[in-house]
Write a structure and sequence with these properties.
CATH architecture of the largest domain: 2-Layer Sandwich
CATH class of the largest domain: Alpha Beta
Radius of gyration: 24 Å
Structural class: alpha+beta
CATH topology of the largest domain: YaeB-like fold
Number of helices: 3
Helix content: 40-55%
Order of helices and strands: HEHHEEEE
Number of domains: 2
Number of strands: 5
Largest sheet: 5 strands, mixed
């Protein structure tokens, strides 16, 4: 093999090694960032719960009790399309799930510093005439 060909092979091997390293390093960085974000976003699940007046009214109207809200907060799925992570004063998360009595609900919760503020509770399948303001 001539010297020029050896240099090209060496260069290709070096490029492949660098690309492999970059892909591996980037993947690990993305995974750790994702884990940190998931933990931060799920932090509302371990905070004391505060119910706004509006949330209490909606819960009463839709026959959803506090135990069902807690269950959805713990086991539900965050709907990021309906969440507002830049909301002020607290980022808001739309957490969706199914209650014990088979209601499909969305709970909008503010992830505040010291508490999880339940802003509203929505039944995703049934319309209710509520007099909540």
């Amino acid at each position: 093999m001539n010297k020029k060909r050896k240099d090209i092979y060496s260069l290709l091997i070096l490029i492949a090694l660098i690309a492999t390293y970059i892909l591996f390093f980037r993947q690990n960085t993305e995974q750790s960032t994702s884990t940190r974000t998931d933990l931060r976003e799920a932090a509302f699940r371990s905070k004391p719960i505060y119910y706004t007046k509006h949330a209490k009214c909606r819960m009463d109207c839709r026959q959803i009790d506090e135990s069902e809200v807690k269950e959805i907060l713990n086991d539900g799925i965050i709907n990021y399309r309906k969440s507002d992570l830049k909301d002020k004063p607290c980022p808001t998360y739309a957490v969706e799930g199914i209650t014990d009595d088979k209601q499909r609900v969305r709970i909008v919760v503010g992830n505040c510093d010291s508490q999880a503020s339940i802003i509203t509770v929505i039944d995703l399948e049934n319309e209710f005439e509520c007099a909540c303001k």
